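BUG: 3D viewer hangs when loading the predicted structure for this chain

Environment: internal workstation, default settings.
Expected: structure renders.
Actual: progress bar stalls at 90%.

Input used:
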Amino acid sequence: MRRLAVLLIVMLILSGCFSTGEKKEGKPHIPQIVEQEWANNSYQFWNIAPMSMGNQTIVSFNQTGDVAITVDLSGFFHEPLLWEQGYVNYTLINENETVFSHQLSEGEWHFEIYLSNVSNLTIQIQASGSDNATDQHPGDWFLSRTYCEMKK
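Structure tokens produced before the viewer hung:
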């Protein structure tokens, strides 16, 4: 009986040493913001005849990673009697590939874009517009706000 009690005590002491091979779950990985970049562009046309403008912005990150991009685009382009209505064309390019493009003539838009393996982004903006001196509206205009957030 004494042998059985000693064996039972030894088994109870060593019972925590044996593992079933299951991994214990730790805390889930919460991505941390590594880098943030902002790019804002705007323009208002004051000319009576149609005119165009363009802008290219390169957003560079210190490393390569996943990027969440928020784009807010708004504008107003009136419809003149003698020519086409103006517009703004917003394009995002990653590694010589267009990943997002939107053309706007009037209103406000909000976009969220998620990209992987990004180190540089190119923002291209092309706009065409004018001002109609005979109405009470201001000249054609646009505003773009871009916020990029890289997480690891």
